[in-house]
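Figure caption, in words: inputs first, then the predicted bound structure.
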Amino acid sequence: MYTQALNTSDADDRHIEDAGRAAAFQARIDAEERIEPNDWMPAAYRKTLTRQISQHAHSEIVGMLPEGNWITRAPSLRRKAALLAKVQDECGHGLYLYAAAETLGASREELVDLMLAGKAKYSSIFNYPTLTWADIGVIGWLVDGAAIMNQIPLCRCSYGPYARAMIRVCKEESFHQRQGYEIMLTLARGSEEQKAMAQDALDRWWWPVLMMFGPPDQASQHSDTSTMWKIKRFSNDELRQKFVDATVPQAQYLGLTIPDPGMKQNADGHWEYSAIDWDEFKQVLAGNGPCNRDRLAARRKAHDDGAWVREAAQAYAEKRKHRQVAQAAE
Ligand code: BYC
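Bound structure (benzoyl coenzyme A present):
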């Protein structure tokens, strides 16, 4: 009894102390201060950032697969060199992001294992197939375009390492978006077959791209806390709307038709789009999209094939450590 009473009092003190720290933490966020790895932060802030940054890292890595599929089939040396560089950039983004997640105390191994076990999410968009060369144009134009729309505000995210990683990522994504749009422009000004191929790719990717921004605001379970902590600066629906408004004139310039007959421009200038099929989104998140199984199988194989590299790096690090210890003892 007596001991329990002491414990309760300790817990109360801790609770009061944490409440004080949480208030000071929120005041720093409200003052637009950056939170750095060694600063105190509420466990829930750490958890949501680890979740979002690791999902983002997985998306970059899995996102190499649909485009990697076309490196050997790119129609010219120039296109091949640009696509190869783009896919390598995505890998680099994944690595910066895993490094940013590690500053929160999660190891890269455990995060990757969760993804390979199918327990951690990655962006729904990468579960769709790349059937023709025009899909590579659409990915650059729309998938990278959507990614930029979402990631520019993340450059002002309250967590320092994530915000700083996003600055370089956004610069590279902007190059990716232009190379995609240039592919689309070439196809749209090409033969009738090329134009039809470009339209077909737009038809297949349009709705999945709108789903990239996440569930509608009323169904977004993390938005309230992420907005309070200034991880999110705009809601899912706000970013989706900004993306649609920016993209419609680009499609018009290409002479392509957005596959939404109900789309119309409102008096305030915004483009109103039809209802999104959220059942399809839920199915893809549940692992039942067209390519979910292939994507995970490809990542698991790459992970297994790379085991010897990790083992060799580990053995080298241990040898080096022993050498340094021996040298220090001399
Ligand atoms: N796909 O409460 P919500 C790229 C999940 S890569 C799958 O609104 P939040 C690129 C969400 O995680 C692009 N899952 O969540 C790479 C949550 O599930 P959990 C990747 C999604 O976090 C290669 C649940 O649904 N970009 O650019 O407030 C080539 C409820 O959602 C999706 C990023 O990761 C989705 N589309 O907002 C080219 C950006 N949407 O965790 C390009 C960083 C939602 O509770 N992430 N979910 O199990 C974010 O900005 C935010 O996490 C989101 C979602 C806007 C995506």
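The pocket of benzoyl coenzyme A is lined by residues 51-52, 55-56, 59-60, 63, 90, 121, 123-124, 143-144, 147, 150, 211-215, 220-223, 226, 236, 285 (CB under 6 Å).
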